[in-house]
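Exercise 7. Given the encoded structure of a 226-residue chain, write a plausible sequence.
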């Protein structure tokens, strides 16, 4: 019994030592994540998934048309550096794409898409435990969004393409769970703010979105040169 207890204590301390080593000053983190909206009216391109929308009714002679189809994806690769133990500074590169294809076959039917690119810094602080690491994170980024409308009957409706500047700010609380010596699963629940600024806007017209979301991803922790 004493040997079992001693072995357990040794393993716990060894695991804690491994955790501390992974979060040591000089180490490098690389990862990728994606966002799932929980609460809020954020832009469709900041979530991930595939949706169909179809209007129906039960009146005589009514025939339902083809459904609208919406595709959304967003990915955020990132890299960071532990400037001191447990404190990570890094940069995010975000890509998001959303496309809506009208099901109706008429002169107003269109394919509408949005494509977003942004880059910016983030800071994360871990509170290491043996099996899981709570953390707090703040981030910000700048970039642009390209919006396009392609009408199927161009003789009636004119296609449009716009490019607007964006500002994104975010923060939240998360939990990192090691699933190996170097691979970690991340879950971050937090608030994000996204602002579109229209080009050549006389009165500084803009759109602002506030969203509570869940960001999920995987990170790879690599030993630094120190």
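Solution.
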């Amino acid at each position: 019994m004493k040997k079992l207890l001693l072995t357990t204590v040794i393993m716990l301390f060894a695991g804690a030592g491994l955790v501390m080593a992974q979060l040591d000053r000089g180490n490098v983190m690389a990862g990728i994540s994606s966002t799932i909206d929980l609460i809020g009216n954020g832009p469709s391109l900041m979530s991930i998934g595939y949706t169909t929308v179809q209007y129906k009714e039960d009146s005589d002679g009514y025939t339902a048309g083809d459904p609208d189809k919406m595709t959304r994806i967003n990915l955020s690769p990132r890299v960071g550096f532990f400037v001191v133990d447990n404190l990570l500074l890094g940069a995010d590169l975000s890509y998001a794409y959303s496309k809506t294809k009208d099901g109706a076959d008429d002169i107003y039917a269109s394919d509408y898409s949005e494509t977003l690119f942004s880059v910016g810094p983030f800071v994360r602080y871990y509170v290491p435990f043996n099996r899981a690491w709570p953390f707090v994170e703040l981030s910000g980024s700048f970039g642009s969004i390209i919006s396009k409308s392609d009408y199927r009957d161009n003789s009636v409706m004119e296609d449009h393409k716009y490019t607007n500047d964006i500002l994104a700010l975010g923060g939240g609380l998360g939990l990192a769970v090691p699933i190996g010596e170097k691979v970690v699963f991340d879950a971050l629940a937090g608030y994000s703010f996204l602002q579109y600024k229209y080009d050549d806007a006389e009165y500084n017209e803009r759109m602002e979105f506030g969203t509570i979301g869940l960001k999920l991803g995987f990170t790879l922790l690599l030993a630094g040169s120190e």
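Remark. The helical segments are 2-22. Students should compare their own answers with the one above.
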